[in-house]
Write a structure and sequence with these properties.
CATH topology of the largest domain: Helix Hairpins
Distance between the termini: 65 Å
Order of helices and strands: HHHHHHHHHH
Helix content: over 70%
Shape: flat
Radius of gyration: 22 Å
Number of strands: 0
Structural class: mainly alpha
Number of helices: 10
Length: 260
Amino acid sequence: MNLRRPLRERLRGNGAGVLLPGQGRRRISLIESFNYAVEGIIHVLRTHRNMRVHFAAAVVVLVLALVVGVDRIELIALLISISFVLIAEMINSAIEAAIDVATSSFDPLAKLAKDIAAGAVLIASINAVVVGYLVFSGQISESGSNLVDRLRDAPAKLTIIALAIVVILVIATKALTGRGTPLRGGLPSGHAAVAFAAWMAVTQLLDPTEHRFLVSMLMLGIASLVAYSRIETGIHSALEVVYGSLLGAGVTLAVFQIFA
């Protein structure tokens, strides 16, 4: 039985840039590498229920971090814990897929490898729960007035969390619609979402001076150019760009209006 031919065809078909005997040397670009990486995230999010649960939990934790007003160190701990869980889940999924390709019958060692990978996800999840408890248990007991004061003094933190929520929602929407690739096509336009989120964040952070309108309009112009470039190059439709723009600006505005 020739097992090399199907594997060769899969490697050639997925565009991963793998060099096989007889093939010319080809270097994939940085953009292509990034695109493949985000495609992997979207695939796991689309096909694995646990990943969707982790993404939803990440959004809830980030919103709760705004509500209770965590400080910078606590926010870093939360972001590391969230990333740790997502990375462990993706490695677990990759190991499972590799084992399923390599084996066609029950193998005790294959089962052991899957169990070990699942155990890594469990450890990461337990760590995230413990970190979340340590961060939020002390914050929830503080008064609401002190919470508002802390949030007003942390514009950078609001911006980071707003952008993180926008990126998570963009990836989740692409996974649900299953259209396009992370950097080319699909609903919504991630570039437009991030550009308009940045415009809204800058507008909210500016002091109410005579220069606020000018700077805001300049940022809006830059964001509009980014969005228009996605339509002009044929990467996104107008609907996808408009949806991404509204998503980025709307989420950021909501974060600043509620918590700033």
